[in-house]
Design brief:
With about 110 residues, the protein is mainly beta. It contains one helix and six strands; from the N terminus they run ββββββα. Helices cover about 10% and strands about 45% of the residues. A six-stranded antiparallel β-sheet has the order 1-2-3-6-5-4. The longest helix has 11 residues. The radius of gyration is 14 Å and the shape is globular.
Length: about 110
């Protein structure tokens, strides 16, 4: 029996990603505080750099502008980067407000 997360959405990598550069302190049940640098975001998850050695399915809670605390599950990892899926999809209006906060330069934002 698997002890990892039982994820319902298996592959959302085609979702629109928005480049960001946002440092967060994640909460992990075994490691405590973990420092992550979020490099892109979608309404379904994020990619981060600086992730400690975690196993697929492990959970991290991060705090994002507008959205607040949100749990994410590790989906994939390389030595440099890791991909996480949010435990819930972020509502579109909240997501767009969060991107406006994290990407103050309008030229970096994708057209809407």
């Amino acid at each position: 029996m698997s002890a990892g997360a039982q994820l319902t959405v298996t592959d959302l990598r085609r979702a629109t990603r928005h480049p960001v550069d946002h440092k967060v302190i994640g909460e992990h049940r075994r490691l405590g505080d973990v420092h992550l640098r979020v490099v892109n975001l979608s309404a379904h998850g994020f990619m981060a750099e600086g992730v400690p050695e975690l196993s697929r399915g492990e959970r991290v809670v991060i705090r994002l502008p507008v959205v607040g605390r949100i749990e994410a599950h590790l989906i994939w990892a390389t030595p440099e980067r890791s991909g996480f899926q949010f435990e819930r999809i972020i509502r579109l209006d909240d997501f767009m407000r969060m991107i406006d906060t994290l990407q103050p330069n309008p030229r970096l934002r994708r057209p809407r």
